[in-house]
Amino acid sequence: MDHLEKEIREVITKQNKKKKSFANGSQIENKRRIIMSVKVINGVNSSNLNLAGQRISEVVQSYQEILGISDDQTIKVNGVEVTADYVLDDADTIEFVKEAGQKGSDTATVRVQSGVNTVNIQVEDGTPVREVLERAAELLGFAFDSNTTVNLNGSATSSDTPITNGDRIEVKKDAGSKG
Predict the structure, then answer these.
(1) The pLDDT value given to residue 36
(2) Rg from Cα positions in the chain
(3) What span, in angstroms and rounded, lies between the C-alpha atoms of 171 and 59?
(4) Residue 137 domain-assigned?
(5) In which region does residue 54 sit, left (phi positive, over 0), alpha (psi from -120 to 50) or beta (all else)?
(6) Are 74 and 117 found together in one domain?
(7) Shortest CA distance to 73 belongs to which of 89, 56, 87?
(8) 3-state DSSP call for residue 151?
(9) In total, how many domains does the chain have?
C-alpha cells in the first residue's frame, strides 16, 4: 500500500467519525447522506463522496491521484470558480476544469462497480486490474479476496490483465461468501 492509499484510508476513517445526526436520529438517512453528500467531477471522472466540511485543498491533496486532478485545473463549485480555501457543503458539486486546448496525459479512466456502487478511477494506461481494484476498494467498501469474481468488460479476467481507457470492471462476491 503506497503513501497516498494510506492517506485516503485515513481521510475516509475521519469522515466516518464525523457523522452528523439528524433531528429524527435516523441512522439510515445519516448513512445515505454521508455516502452521497458531494459530487466530484474531473473530465469523465465523477464520484459522490462524503466531503462536506472539508476545504477544496484537502480534497485535492487526498484524491488527486485517484481522480486524476492536475495542478493547472480551475476549480468550480456549483458552477462558480472558487479558491482552495472554499469549504464544501452538502449537495455541492465540485468540478475540476481544464482550459480549452489542454490535453490529458496517457491515462485511462476505468469504471469500477461493486453491487449498486460505482466509481470512476483514473490510472495510467496498462495498469493491472489488481491495482485499479486496490484504489477502488476503500471508496466502494469491498474486500478483494479469493471469494471475489472480477469481470472486465463483461468477461471474467485475471487481476494481472492490463486495462485501457473506457474499460469497465465489475466486482462480485461468489455465492455463499460473506462480506
Answers:
(1) 44
(2) 17
(3) 26
(4) yes
(5) beta
(6) no
(7) 56
(8) strand
(9) 2
Residue-wise burial string across 130-141, b where 16 or more C-beta atoms lie within 10 A, e elsewhere: ebbbbbbbbbbe
pLDDT at 154 over 70: yes
| Phi, psi (deg, nearest 5) at residue 95 | -130, 130
Residue 28 has phi, psi (to 5 degrees) of -65, -45
Residues 9 and 35 in one domain: yes
pTM for the structure as a whole: 0.44
- Does residue 61 have a pLDDT over 80? yes
Q: Are residues 9 and 92 in the same domain?
A: yes
pLDDT tops 60 at residue 177: no
Strands (E), 4-106: 38-42, 45-49, 74-77, 80-81, 93-97
Pairing status of strand 155-156 against strand 148-152: antiparallel
